[in-house]
Design goal:
Strand content: 15-25%
Number of helices: 8
Largest sheet: 6 strands, parallel
Strand order of the largest sheet: 2-5-1-6-7-8
Structural class: alpha/beta
Length: 214
């Protein structure tokens, strides 16, 4: 069994796009996959098919419903804020220990756990997404964009993760809507500074084979 955590350098970078690509690729290879989006901010019950969890369920070939959303996303909040803030608006908190336990329950060939926001986003009053990754101990894919500033954001994220002992399996550059230079240049620059990490670019709206990265 193979488990992987999918995080990013920030929000709206392309984590769910990468997660759904992997789900479809794993299924095409005849393997069983369980994909989780345990925490979701900005959840609108009227648009469940368009939320991150709905997109993941679609990639898994499963029916999208309130029940199926709950099964992969137990912690859902209405406000599009960091999880600690979004939960506080509803008088709730995320039980960190229960979150960790939830992410360990699987028997499929692959387990994909998609985080929320970037690697340093607060989950609770004390823990961040990085604490979540460390507690699970899963190798991690870091999704970055190709926008201006992404190189600094990517290197900072990877260094912060490595300082905590996280294994960075690969970096996936999800092409942003606006890129100051060709994506290939961004990839080559990041490779110069992270020579021991695979760096792969995903064209905007396109696909690549990501399974070898896991």
């Amino acid at each position: 069994m193979t488990a992987c955590f999918i995080t990013a350098t920030g929000t709206d970078i392309g984590k769910t796009y990468v997660t759904t690509m992997l789900c479809r690729e794993i299924r095409r290879n005849g393997k069983a996959v369980r994909a989780l989006k345990p925490v979701l901010s900005g959840y609108e019950p009227a648009n469940i098919g368009e939320c991150d969890s709905g997109l993941i369920l679609d990639a898994l070939g499963e029916i999208i419903s309130e029940n199926s959303i709950y099964e992969i996303t137990p912690w859902r909040f209405a406000k599009p804020l960091s999880p600690d803030m979004a939960a506080a608006r509803e008088g709730k908190v995320i039980d960190f220990e229960k979150l960790i336990e939830f992410c360990r329950l699987y028997s499929e060939d692959y387990l994909l756990v998609e985080g929320v926001g970037g690697a340093m986003v607060p989950l609770t009053s004390r823990e961040t997404v990085l604490d979540w990754i460390v507690a699970l101990g899963y190798p991690t894919l870091v999704v970055a964009g190709s926008y201006l500033g992404t190189i600094s954001h990517t290197l900072t994220t990877v260094h912060a993760m490595r300082d905590r002992g996280v294994t960075v399996a690969a970096i996936v550059i999800s092409e942003s809507e606006v890129s100051p230079v060709p994506v290939s240049e961004t990839v080559e620059t990041i490779k110069r500074f992270l020579i021991d990490v695979a760096v792969v670019a995903v064209p905007r709206g396109g696909t690549v084979d990501l399974l070898p990265l896991l």
